[in-house]
Amino acid sequence: MMKTINIKTRNIFALRTTAILAFCIFLASCQPSSSTKKDEHADNTADAKTVDAFITETSERYLEVAREINAAQWAYVTYINDDTAYLASKANERLMAFEKEVLAEARNYKDKPMSAPTAKAYANLTLGKVLLPPDTPAERAELAQLGTNMEGVYGAGKYCTPKKGKKNEQDCRDLNQLSDVLVKSRNYDELLDAWTGWRTVAPSYKKDYVRYVEIANAGARAYGFSDLSASWKSGYDMPSANFEAEVERLWTQVEPLYKSLQCKVRTDLAKHYGKDKVPLDQPIPAHLLGNMWSQQWGSIYDLVTPYPGVGDLDITAALVKSKKDAVAITKTAENFFTSLGLQSLPPSFWQKSMLTKPRDREVVCHASAWSMDSKDDVRIKECIEPTEIEFETIHHELGHIYYFLEYKDKPYLFQNGANDGFHEAIGDTIVLSMTPGYLKTIGLFDKVENNQKAVINQQMKLALDKVAFLPFGKIIDQWRWQVFSGKIKQEDYNKSWWQLVEEYQGIRSAVPRSEDDFDAGAKYHIAANVPYTRYFIAHILQFQFHKALCDAAGFKGPLHECSIYNSKEAGAKLQTLLAAGSSKPWQDVLEEAIGTREMDATAILDYFAPLKTWLDEQNKGQACGW
Ligand code: X8Z
Ligand code: ZN
Fold it and tell me: What residues are in contact with ligand 1 under a 6 Å CB criterion?
């Protein structure tokens, strides 16, 4: 399927973003670079209709179109086969034809005076689009098919090896099984086999991806953007260049914390695997970090525990012991949201969600949240297992669901996150409140320890996910922006990917890679064309949100001890933020919610201050860096 223009992204995680009215109406720099001469795409209906009428009508038309694309897309990713692929492609084609028509009409209103809400809706309609429709039906059909195909190949991807002792038979493992090896195995070669094994899938769609980029760029250019990345970057209520500078600024703030963590983890991995395998002055081998993409490292906590045996809260073991199935795990997550005063999930959520991996068909297991009808038909698709990772992921997904539910009464063009990072940050913010005290309250543990050593252990555990993620969250689009702009050519895809991984993450592949590999494509969001900077931003914002909600809850101690569980005051604040949707520039929403107009890493740095002190003490005498 292709990642549709708005819709798919919007459902899955909310995609379009916006541009500040004042900026974008009056500043040429923030406009797409299209000419101001009479537009060949424009039609003549502008005189007959006011811009307000156009926006109202468009919002209403989208509801219908969204319903159709969501149904087709949902059917496809929960049952991958030729027929659903065909239907998903066709629905995407229709969506693109619709958007072409609407965007052409929108051009008639570009320079008309607008009220602030109308201008914001107009910005939401025209900026920050994940995909823009190319001009010809043939290109749109091809783009839709390429997108559908890549997601399907990724979803059904398997690594097959000859079965031991059986000549003509094969053992095939899917992404979940291979990821499981990365999580559990501590055998260097076994890990490397799973890691390289998953990377045998992506090369089969590299050619498709190259073509996809070409046509998607043609679509973006038809609307005045230099390439698709310019469209993506136009959706943050500020000029694109400022947004890029913001990302750099935030990275500079957190880089020292990341480097301290990388250094300590490398030392500990060298103790386990040997300095020959993990040299102390080199990037870390990518397959040793407990995750297929080395993006979150929580699974190797056992190898890097600061104080073994102290305050050990093994959530996976507790979930298994409690015999909670996927529904019970989801209800535990729902219970957190209702404890804040938010509503229970509608009955249809429980009837229609896909919470476990079906045994009899191919699906895309990568978790996602959907608003099918822009009202109450909200659903999750996730292959839940009783593990800590899935437990956190279900909270992440419910964050999306509660966003959908809180803004469902807004016009369609305001039904989105204030920016896409907001949408990604909500569920994660809740996870920050899953303190030992909270886990005890809900009965997952009988007793929890609270002393300085236990705090450092907990901080390390969380940092392995939240801090380790930061450079990864940045580089995916660092790579993709340059692919879309043409700065990175297809013959350099893999080389440039590994340069970024090495430079920012301090990680390398343990085995040589070549341009026959397509290692960026081993990540879902590349195959599915989902922008990724949203997660980088979300990892900064969630700590800002956590701090503000803890303040609202009246919490006074250190942030890492705060849980907003049961706080109706925190819930009310959260609800206000969610209900605003994308009706205002994100800076306004942020200011109303937390009293500042800036994304800022101070909150995450403050949160991890105890760990940073400890890490720097531990790293003394080590030559950190790579
Ligand atoms: O894709 C996701 C969510 C769905 S929006 C499961 N995440 C990113 C990833 O898995 O790479 C959440 C964290 C980052
Ligand atoms: Zn998400």
Answer: 13, 295, 367-368, 393, 396, 535
